[in-house]
Design brief:
13 helices, 54% helix, mainly alpha, binds tryptophanyl-5'AMP, globular
Length: 335
């Protein structure tokens, strides 16, 4: 609890700009949660360096992600929106939590397994201890809930285990967080391979819709979406994952259910469904894209938010870090 409200923490990497899965699985829900909770939303730039990157791309993407948070509707005064690297307590607590995390636990992380297969030539320890930094992010703010997509559930469970282990030794230091998954959109699938989740790192450019893709590109990507040969618009995620994914996306933007969306396309062809989904997504993302353009032009405003929120986050995080250091017997600073 902070100022009488439960606390939310979440974050996104800045390896490129955001894609539709990030938006429907997380960002869109964040906006609807900001009223009831004290919210901290970080651009987790330190997580983004676990894979090789171009410095200029990281810097630009980090700023883009921060602006997209605001463009999607997060009020940067009510929500603390900040860069992870601007709050050194994240790295400091991560080191401490490394000493409370077992190799076996990290070895079991499916995301580590996936990423190590993809980045065989750069199997660095950052990739391995990535979930520990994530645990530090969450625990520093004493977060009650962590709104994420389904792929992050395992990391949040590990975070709970680490926090419980620490509390069992040193008393009630950390709030034990819970993952908060949206009712829909928790796993948006690739448009080219509906067995996989949509991901910005996918090599097939048509598999993923970026929030800043222009209208024609969005419509074209949906037109190329892989479906099936059953030739019937039905909501059946098990047997028709491609079609069901399109219906899920359409339903979220139209604020209806996937089953009702399926009824709307009853008797119609896949071509019609794909065109309607593409147009709906392009229409619904237009205000976000316009707001992003305005924000991009207002450097001073964005800079002021970055500065003010880094201070706010540092103050909250610093308190938890001090508590941890004190409990563990690390020497007091001499003032
Ligand atoms: P990242 O950057 O991969 O994704 C950010 C958020 O988007 C969600 N997401 C999806 N949801 C539905 N369908 C998809 N296809 C899809 N792809 C991504 C993710 O579940 C996530 O909520 N490790 C995290 C970042 C992180 C973090 C944290 C999250 C670092 N520290 C602390 C929460 C709390 C990650 O790589 O997310």
């Amino acid at each position: 609890m902070l100022d009488g409200k439960p606390v939310l923490f979440s974050g996104m990497q800045a390896t490129s700009t955001l894609q539709l899965g990030n938006y429907l699985g997380a960002l869109k829900n964040w906006v609807s949660l900001s009223e009831k909770y004290e919210c901290f939303y970080s651009v987790v730039d330190l997580h983004s360096i676990t894979i090789r990157h171009e410095p200029a791309v990281l810097r630009n993407c980090s700023r883009d992600v921060l602006m997209l948070y605001i463009a999607a509707g997060l009020d940067p005064v009510r929500n603390c929106i900040f860069y992870q690297s601007h709050v050194p307590a994240h790295s400091e607590l991560a080191w401490i939590l490394n000493c409370f995390t077992y190799l076996g636990e990290l070895n079991r992380m499916t995301q580590f397994k996936d990423k190590s297969a993809k980045h065989e030539t750069n199997l660095n320890t950052g990739l391995f201890t990535y979930p520990v930094l994530q645990a530090a992010d969450i625990l520093l703010y004493q977060a009650d809930y962590v709104p994420v997509g389904k792929d992050q559930k395992q990391h949040i469970e590990l975070c709970r285990d680490i926090a419980q282990r620490f509390n069992a030794i040193y008393g009630d230091v950390f709030t034990i967080p819970e993952a908060h998954l949206g009712k829909s959109g928790a796993k948006v699938l690739s448009l080219q391979d509906p067995k996989k989740k949509m991901s910005k790192s996918d090599e097939n450019i048509n598999s993923c819709v970026f929030l800043l893709d222009d209208r024609d590109t969005i419509i074209r990507k949906f037109k190329k979406a892989v479906t099936d040969s059953l030739a019937e618009v039905k909501y059946d995620p098990e047997n028709q994952p491609g079609v069901s994914n399109l219906l899920d996306i359409y339903a979220i933007f139209k604020e209806t259910s996937a089953k009702e969306a399926a009824a709307e396309f009853n008797g119609k062809g896949y071509g019609e469904l794909k065109a309607a989904v593409g147009e709906t997504v392009a229409d619904c993302l237009k205000p976000l894209q316009e707001r992003y353009d305005e924000l991009k032009a207002d450097k001073a405003y964005i800079d002021s938010i970055i500065k003010a929120n880094a201070e706010k986050a540092s103050s909250v995080a610093g308190k938890t870090l001090q508590k941890v250091q004190k409990k563990m017997g690390l020497p007091f600073k001499v003032r």
